[in-house]
């Protein structure tokens, strides 16, 4: 049974370790699967958010287009629609200017600008910022448009990002002739409103979370990229070139016509009062495209952790840390339970040894006392000298028995933490003499030699008299028992030279010494070292001595060498003048 129990314990430990390893492998696999699913979820949600951001931005611009679509397209109608936009739109400042370009008007200015102050269109010069747009319109006006191109241009609006402006080409015909570009509607946009109102609102709506923006949003244009908007001031050049998602805000289409730039004078003259009305239904939805020749506005989004991959990697590390920490805690708990079980088993074994040893120690004096009492009671011993000898024997065995019982009871009290000591100034020399006197019978019966050296100017110590006497008796008894066939015991007391107020009592023997493997366990209760197995005892003396020393504010140390003996040193706090003043 004894051989089978360790094998069973080892098997249980191995099984538990295998379970922990299996759980760790499953946890890593599960964490990888969770990270993969989280990566797909983030990418899918990002695609949806980018699509909605782009759709809502296009809707904001298409609202402007809808406001200027319809028939008849006279200057008065455009003026009314502009005023209506200013009064009803949630972003009235988005539209800054309204231009009508009449390509056929050569008598006056071909460019008309709506004036807020007079409430009508007035001739205007081409602004410098509209120069690239003017060149494009002149080129397209010089081209003859096909029927298919005319249909494609119906209600098609172009976003010119440089101005910025929305441009709608107006197509007319001349009595069955091929359709020609007769003019354009140019709606100027306020870039500040787009940057500070529309972009931030859309970014917060689709990329925000409880702790702020989950993704950093950048709007760029041109090559190299120029920043129009950023949700975070931490955008870098890398953020402007790449991201977790990058799309054009407005779709691009190839140019309708390809031709060289022409001069304004090459445009055929038309009636300046002619209505700019395409041959199309006014209910055809407007279509918005970006200027083909430009880079357009691009939306670049990246996760606030740096990228979606970085966010997933951080989540994976956090999950692994938490899960492996739980497994580590389980492993530590399992190890502690095993260690505590082993310690409990060892303690139980030591306690059984104590019971066996105490039983043996009690049985011997009891047997001697019973035998001597029987001889005296039966009248076997009649000589006065023999009676005295038997009386001395009974008294000696009774002393041993009493000491053993007192030691066991003292250990029980010390272990239960119920015992308290009253430390007061104490003459150490007198306490040592009292302890030697109490151990005198043991010294005489063992034939031990005692040498004592006490410093004459030894200061008083702070200790409990009874507790200190019991501690010294245990140390002296230990030195006598383990001092060999003819024990030699030395006791010295001196004030410590080291810093601090301390008195040291050294109790030495010249016995077999303590094995190095046993040295750190000598103060453990019930412990019996390799060199002390043949000496009768309970294994409680040194444990009690240490607990008493520590309870009085001191400590107990040991030095030993095999074959040369041991030296136990009791360190006690001295009673200083400061203590006397405090008292």
Q: Unreliable segments (pLDDT under 50, ≥5 consecutive)?
A: 254-281
Give the CA-CA distance, first to last residue.
62 Å
Q: Report the structural category.
A: alpha+beta
Say how many strands there are: 20
β-sheet strand percentage? 15-25%
**Which strands sit side by side, in order, in the main sheet?**
3-2-1-6-5-4-12
Mean pLDDT: 78
Shape verdict: rod-shaped
Work out the helix count. 13
Round the Cα radius of gyration to an integer and report it. 52 Å
Helix content: 40-55%
Quaternary structure classification: single chain
Largest sheet: 7 strands, mixed
Protein model, in words:
It contains 13 helices and 20 strands. It has 2 domains: 262 residues, no CATH class; 161 residues, Histidine kinase-like ATPase, C-terminal domain (Heat Shock Protein 90, 2-Layer Sandwich). It is an alpha+beta fold and 583 residues long. The radius of gyration is 52 Å and the shape is rod-shaped. A hairpin with a 6-residue loop joins β17 and β18.
């Amino acid at each position: 049974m004894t051989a089978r129990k360790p094998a069973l314990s080892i098997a249980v430990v191995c099984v538990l370790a295998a379970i922990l390893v299996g759980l760790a492998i499953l946890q890593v696999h599960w964490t990888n699967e969770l990270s993969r699913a989280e990566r797909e979820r983030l990418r899918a949600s990002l695609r949806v958010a980018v699509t909605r951001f782009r759709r809502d931005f296009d809707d904001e611009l298409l609202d402007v287009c809808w406001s200027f679509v319809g028939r008849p397209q006279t200057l008065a109608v455009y003026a009314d629609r502009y005023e209506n936009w200013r009064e009803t739109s949630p972003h009235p400042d988005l539209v800054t200017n309204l231009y009508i370009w009449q390509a056929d008007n050569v008598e006056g200015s071909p460019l008309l600008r709506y004036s807020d102050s007079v409430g009508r269109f007035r001739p205007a010069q081409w602004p410098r910022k509209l120069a690239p747009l003017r060149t494009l319109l002149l080129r397209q006006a010089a081209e003859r448009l096909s029927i298919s191109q005319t249909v494609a241009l119906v209600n098609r609006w172009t976003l010119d990002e440089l101005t910025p402006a929305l441009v709608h080409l107006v197509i007319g015909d001349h009595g069955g002739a091929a359709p020609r570009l007769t003019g354009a509607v140019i709606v100027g946009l306020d870039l500040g409103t787009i940057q500070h109102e529309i972009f931030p609102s859309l970014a917060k709506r689709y990329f925000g979370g409880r702790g702020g923006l989950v993704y950093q949003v950048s709007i760029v244009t041109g090559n190299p990229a120029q920043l129009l908007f950023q949700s975070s001031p931490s955008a870098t050049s890398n953020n402007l070139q790449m991201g977790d998602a990058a799309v054009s805000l407005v779709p691009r289409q190839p140019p309708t016509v390809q031709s060289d730039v022409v001069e304004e004078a090459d445009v055929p003259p038309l009636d300046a009062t002619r209505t700019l009305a395409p041959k199309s239904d006014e209910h055809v939805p407007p279509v918005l495209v970006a200027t083909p020749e430009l880079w357009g506005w691009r939306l670049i989004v990246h996760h606030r952790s740096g990228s979606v991959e970085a966010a997933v990697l951080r989540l994976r590390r956090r999950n692994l840390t938490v899960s492996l920490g739980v497994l580590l805690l389980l492993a530590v708990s399992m190890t502690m339970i095993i260690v505590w079980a082993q310690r409990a088993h060892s303690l139980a074994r030591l306690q059984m040894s104590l019971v066996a040893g105490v039983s043996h120690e009690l049985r011997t004096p009891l047997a001697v006392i019973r035998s001597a009492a029987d001889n005296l009671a039966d009248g076997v011993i009649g000589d006065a000298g023999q009676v005295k000898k038997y009386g001395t024997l009974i008294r000696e065995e009774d002393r041993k028995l009493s000491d053993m019982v007192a030691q066991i009871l003292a250990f029980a009290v010390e272990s239960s933490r119920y015992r308290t000591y009253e430390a007061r100034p104490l003459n150490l020399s007198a306490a040592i003499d009292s302890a030697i006197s109490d151990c005198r019978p043991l010294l005489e019966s063992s034939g031990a030699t005692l040498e004592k050296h006490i410093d004459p100017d030894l200061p008083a110590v702070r200790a409990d008299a009874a507790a200190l006497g019991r501690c010294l008796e245990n140390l002296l008894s230990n030195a006598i028992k383990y001092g060999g066939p003819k024990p030699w015991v030395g006791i010295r007391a001196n004030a410590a030279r080291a810093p601090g107020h301390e008195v040291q009592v050294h109790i030495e023997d010249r016995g077999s010494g303590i094995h190095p493997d046993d040295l750190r366990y000598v103060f453990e209760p019930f412990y019996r070292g390799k060199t002390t197995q043949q000496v009768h005892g309970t294994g409680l003396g040194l444990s009690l001595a240490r607990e008493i020393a520590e309870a009085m504010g001191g400590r107990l140390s040991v030095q030993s060498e095999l074959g040369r003996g041991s030296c136990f040193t009791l360190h006690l706090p001295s009673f200083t003048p400061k203590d006397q003043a405090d008292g």
